[in-house]
Write a structure and sequence with these properties.
six-stranded antiparallel β-barrel; Rossmann fold; Thrombin, subunit H; 8 helices; alpha+beta; about 25% helix; single chain; 3 domains
Length: about 350
Amino acid sequence: MCADAEAVQVFSGIFQELNIAVECCGDLSAAQARIDERRFDVLLLDCGDAPANLRLISGARRSRPNRAALIVAIVDDPTQAAQAFAGGANFILYKPVLQEHIAQSRRATGARALQERRTRPRMNVNAPADISFAAKESVSVMLIDLSEGGVAFQAPFPIPSNCKVYFQFFLPGTTGVIRLSGEVMWQSSGRAGIRFVSVPQASQRVLKTWLQAQSPVAHITAPHDPAAPAPEEQSLTVRLSARLGLLLAAGNSQRNLPRYPCRLGAEVHGAGSKIPQHCQLSDLNTEGCYVETSEPFPIDTPLKIIVRAERVRLSLEGKVRIMHPGYGMGVQFTSPQESQREQLQRLVESVQAQPK
């Protein structure tokens, strides 16, 4: 559904290259009727200026024929992108849509289908998730497929391969939040596969129950390796990424400075508590750190962190900015003194210089 003649021409040419028949519709009500009645492999929706155009995305996700369709939203600005992404869009394209932009993206993006075997069945899922890792906090991504051992998702940036990734999400039709951590196994065309490392029992129960409900025998084919790339029947997502240079809406979550992976022992004191928690820092920079602990403090809790490394005892104060129950918390340092800043800078440089 798009009323921009130039954009329709560009996209029609790209879909023809992929041997996908194109059906254009410029009317909102007619588009909604077709989505409710017929199945489409791809829905490309121009969100335009009307809020109703954005609602067409969530309407498609609720429709029986197209609840699992690949949805590409064309938007004017990041606000629309966030709304489209929340409504269930898989990809975002920003206006203006120009042929030269598409050509540049095609040259820059390679469509590679990695062939790996999974050990557990994978179920398709279209659900938003919140992830955090060494360089970013609370970023929205879209889950693509899921198993008991791993997940594939679409991300607006590359995910580092040498750090943990912390997930938090709800599965469609469930009320229990799933929290878990994992490690990157592969990346291709904006997509990434994660192997689960730690899944609490409560999250494991919700995940297993949902997978069983989605997994009638007819849906399960040969067993596969968890978090491996989608097989050939799902290569449409990869091929579209290569042709369109598709970009996801990025959340406002990037830190001012990158954090560096580390393994440093620390004592953490909550406000008013004399009993320390013995924890481990998993990433660090001069502005903050991530503390791995099974009992993180609530957001905005003032903390005192004592780090002992390389014959240095460094005491820092900070505040919890993000919290992952059962895993840890992101801490922002608050106004260290001059001597502390110098020690912290040396510690960060030492961590940064360590072989990866």
